[in-house]
Specification:
Four Helix Bundle (Hemerythrin (Met), subunit A), two-stranded antiparallel sheet, 7 strands, 300 residues, alpha+beta, five-stranded mixed sheet, Nonspecific Lipid-transfer Protein, Chain A
Length: 300
């Protein structure tokens, strides 16, 4: 199946990156205390440095150039990373990415986002790039991933200093359809660990949102794949992207998401979802603001 990114999704992704970057930089420099704890382990400045480190890595990726900040062994660490070791990689990068001054972080982030947008102006959005775990991600998905980093870590920072931080659903949705589904259309490498215990028979989960195309993901035979629209399913998950993303990364609990009906689980065999989530999940959320709401996967 030929993979294409609709022109309006590419335009929205670029617009969302600019908007999220500008809001993030303003939050960082507008009298915010950089020493306030944004998560259990990171200050506001640490969180901003983390996002900047990703942006700097992406500049090198889209420009096909060397990384501006030297991080030992990064070339060998990134291809071997999976979702359960991402937190260790983050720690390693931050130990060598030492800038914590809010103004300098904001300026460098603005420069990095400018560089990414300029470098990809004429790039077909379907162009794949190497990513963590030796995955292949469309360039539109790489930008969408950075949008999500800005929105989720901006949420942490705003929460720490008691500032509003609305997350637009149409911008949040880009993480799901442009990054995650875009990666599944190509190659997830070793990012999703299919050496984990597998269900005895395949599990098919259909994801629906008003902001994204409906997608069915099947886990079975030690692989994860996208299925045709008419494929029978075990579970259906309907979600609102902004709150769904916060749940995925442990910022809010499954119970809260369900009570708010931000995530609705149904289907003929909903009890099969936990087995699916043991393999198909997001990185560990050990940095979540509250251990009571931290989760390591799609809300499990």
């Amino acid at each position: 199946m030929t993979y294409t990114v609709p022109a309006h999704r590419w335009t929205l992704t670029r617009t969302a990156l600019r908007a999220a970057g500008d809001r993030f930089r303003t939050l960082l420099t507008d009298g915010t205390d950089p020493t306030a704890m944004a998560t259990r382990e990171w200050t506001v400045a640490d969180s901003a440095a983390h996002v900047l480190s990703i942006a700097v890595l992406y500049v090198a990726l889209v420009e096909d150039s060397d990384v501006a900040v030297r991080i030992p062994d990064i070339e060998t660490i990134l291809p071997a990373t999976n979702v359960d070791t991402v937190a260790d990689v983050n720690d390693h990068v931050l130990r060598h990415f030492t800038e914590r001054d809010p103004d300098r972080l904001a300026d460098q982030l603005g420069e990095a986002i400018d560089a990414i947008l300029v470098a990809t102006t004429r790039t077909p959005p379907e162009t794949t790039l190497p990513w963590l775990g030796d995955a292949r991600v469309p360039v539109c998905g790489v930008l969408a991933h950075l949008v999500n980093e800005l929105l989720v870590h901006g949420w942490d920072m705003a929460r720490a200093v008691r500032r509003p931080w609305p997350i637009p659903d149409d911008h949040a949705a880009l993480y799901w359809d442009q990054f995650f589904l875009g990666m599944l259309h190509h190659d997830y490498g070793v990012l999703l660990d299919t050496s984990l215990p597998m269900p005895k028979r395949p599990i098919a989960v259909r994801f629906r949102s008003a902001y994204t195309p409906t997608a069915t993901i099947v886990l079975g035979d030690r692989r994860i794949r996208l299925a045709p629209p008419d494929h029978p399913v075990d579970v259906q998950v309907r979600f609102r992207p902004a709150r769904f993303n916060l749940m995925l990364f442990g910022r809010t609990s499954t119970a809260v998401a369900a009570l708010r009906r931000d995530v609705v689980i149904s289907g003929p065999r909903p009890w099969r979802l936990p087995a699916f989530l043991r393999v198909v999940h997001m990185p560990n959320a050990r940095l979540a603001p509250n251990t009571a709401t931290a989760g390591r996967c799609f809300g499990c």
